[in-house]
Amino acid sequence: MKQFTKLQLQLLHLLSDGQCHSGNLIGEQLGVSRTAIWKNISQLAELGLAVTRIPQQGYQLRQPMIPLDELLIRQRLKSRYYEKTTNFHLFAELGSTNQFLKELDSNSSINVCCAEKQTQGRGRFGRHWISPFGENIYFSGRWELNCCLSRLSGLSLVVGLAILASLRDSGIAEDVRIKWPNDLLWGNKKLCGILIEAIAEANSCAQVIIGIGINVNTATHEQPLADKPWCSLYEITGNTFDRNRLVGDLIYHLNNYLDKFLLAGFVAFTDEWQELDYLQGKFIEVSQPTGSTSGYACGVNQLGQLGLRDEKGNIQYLSSGDTSLKPLK
Q1: Is the per-residue pLDDT at 2 higher than 90?
Q2: Per-residue pLDDT tens over the stretch 176-209
Q3: DSSP-derived secondary structure letter, 244
Q4: pTM score
Q5: Can you spell out the DSSP letters for 135-196?
């Protein structure tokens, strides 16, 4: 568990434009010695920062990077008139953002944890989540929801819709679809994953952790994964993004969608979901601990359960499982 020092955060902001900066000038701007600059940049490089030392010139990032900064996230939220009490826990390096919030003392405020890098990031079924330093969003939010756990059916689908709404604010939506129950895809490549953990229920209130990984600035097209195709906002648009703005928009939309979900349930989102359903009409396989089932995906019901139609036309509804496309025999 590591957090940026004040000096390291200042250094990252100075270098964020991708230009070469002289060690002498940086030291004068920040009021510290060249040795302190060298030492702190070396520490950042050990974390994974892609920085080049150019002899007689200074330091330069190999690609622009704006660090996660609570002040910038709060400024974005303020611009959207967001007023919920929210505590931020931002780290340079952390094992798992979900795990950190699980171990946090219970309180009624919204708690948000983000890291520049996760060393033990995971998705559903304990799968490893690739977490390069300073490129993507590794986010977890802990909400106290005024309902019992039994009313949370369809929550992961609502979270997916909220994520897509937040991306639209940055002009990203074209061809992005949601794959039941917890992935956002562009084409057949994974853009975002969701991991929801209910950790407590007391006095008709549920404590829920919503973990979200969004591939943002990684050049995924240069790092293909044959078994698990992935993509990023950079691959989709050719642009790099300020993750502080994205995180602010994400919190804003998550809060609004959760409020609506608590008021009306998943039924209020079924039309929106149907328009974005990646699996609709496809022949798929659903893997569960008890075995696998195949059939044609035919949307979701009012509880967010996936409809699976077999060759005889019978439909069964599934509450959980891992879905994948399956070639027709």
Answers
A1: yes
A2: 999 999 999 998 999 999 999 988 777 778 889 9
A3: H
A4: 0.93
A5: TSEEEEEEEEESS-GGG-TTHHHHHHHHHHHHHHTTT--TTEEEETTTEEEETTEEEEEEEE
Question: How many CA atoms, within 13 angstroms, populate the side-chain half-sphere of residue 320?
Answer: 11
How many angstroms separate the most distant Cα atoms in the chain?
A: 76
**Residue linked to tokens 């809060």:** 255
Alpha-carbon gap, residue 207 to 267, rounded angstroms: 22
Domains of the chain by range and CATH?
6-61 (1.10.10.10), 70-274 (3.30.930.10), 279-325 (2.30.30.100)
Distances in whole angstroms, Cα of residue 178 to Cα of each of 25, 138, 163, 175, 306? 48, 19, 10, 10, 13
Closest CA to 50 of 114, 121, 132, 119: 132
CA angle 33, 117, 53 (to 5 degrees): 35
Q: State the average pLDDT for the chain.
A: 91
Ramachandran region, residue 213 (left: φ > 0; alpha: ψ -120 to 50; beta: rest): beta
Q: Which residue type does 107 have?
A: N
Structure token pair of residue 55: 């002899």
